[in-house]
Amino acid sequence: MTARNPRVLIVSRDRGLLRQLSQFLELFGYPSVQAAATEEAMRAWQAHEPDTVIIDGELPTRAMLELCQRLRGERPDGDLYLMCCIGEDDADNLVQVAEAGVDDFLAKPVVHGELLSRLRAASRYTAARHHQTAPRDRLTGLLTTDALLRQWRNRKALHQSAATPSSCVVAGVDSLERINRLWGYAAGDAVLVWLAELCVRHAGPDALVGRLDGDQLAIVLPTSAPDDARHRAESMREEIARHSVDWADQALDVTASFGIAAHHAEDEAARTLAAARRALVAAKQSGRNLTLIDGETEDSDSSLRELAGPGSLFAGTRARDVMLPCSLLLRPNDSTHHAAALLRRCGLSAAPVVDRSGQLLGLADAAKLTSERPSAHAADNGKTTEVADVLQREVTCFELDTPFAKLFDFFVADTAADAVVVDGRRPLGLLSREGLTALIEPATDHAESARGTAATGA
To answer: What is the per-residue pLDDT across 258-277, written as a single tens digit (0 to 9) for each?
Structure first.
């Protein structure tokens, strides 16, 4: 599904509480379903398949435990979040309810701000669980990211030594947010389903096709070099631009951009996928409705050098001005699967890892998180791989006031690296070559335009 708030089922004998929570959730964009009894709750569950269930702890204990167990039986993969509202009089049932499968507790009377925070956490949790357990995307029927990478690695033909590389193509709908805003998320879903069917049709029988997060689909072409992959991507792009998506008596005009990366026998699948996504970002930054191969925008170095020098446009720019603020901090004991899912949802290639006091321990790279799997011995003993196992401890850090020219020198020397902006040892933001390049592109275009105007005037 496209990014949206989860549907919530509220179960309570208190009609006033049902009404109060429903009105509040609807106000903040959370669709809700209400039930005043357990059997009614199960009928509502079967009809609407909510992502989160809020159960009032004042329900009879036996009925509440039975409801929790039945709901867990409906979703044995854990792709469901159960919350229980507990008052002072319900504390005796706390252990029993937890053992029945409840994920979180909410104190009564309900504090609305706390409820919103818990719902956001529930959304992140269920998304992570879904990516860990489901081989197929619910909306499109395509492989999930993890399943795509797993099958890609398992295909020996993709890893045999060959003079000609294979290719990975990532397709992204242009301006899907606008479609969701104007026509609703169901229209956005219809566009993604249509795009998925088109990609499968063009990909061929030997390809792997998967759904990444948001508006992105990935196609692994095991027998196509990048130039051949470009030809196939261009055919898809042109067909998308020629046709409209039928939705509720409306014809939705859609375009898409494509990023391509070469995959050699010695390459890691996750890194090739990341390179294709990087090329897609460059295509969208270049005006959308475009196909680019990773590395085609390497000429940005000269633009960076001009703009970083003394007296230039960015002479007074500091790291604090160009960093991407840290929206996600990981802990060393987080599971790699959970951390990888969070990075994908946030659209990040890496995230800082901190200790309990918030001090930087290192950096977790999305490619390593996705590719790391527990050993057979660890899996047999139920041990999951933790972020600490793949932590990159040697990380380049810059203080908030580091000049832009120094950042430029670093990223020219190491184009693949990420850096962390810190205050002492507390991470505040991330820096990447792609981020700096995206920043200077408008300025470069403006400078080129100004030079062209001056030449014309001359």
So the answer is: 999 999 887 888 889 988 98
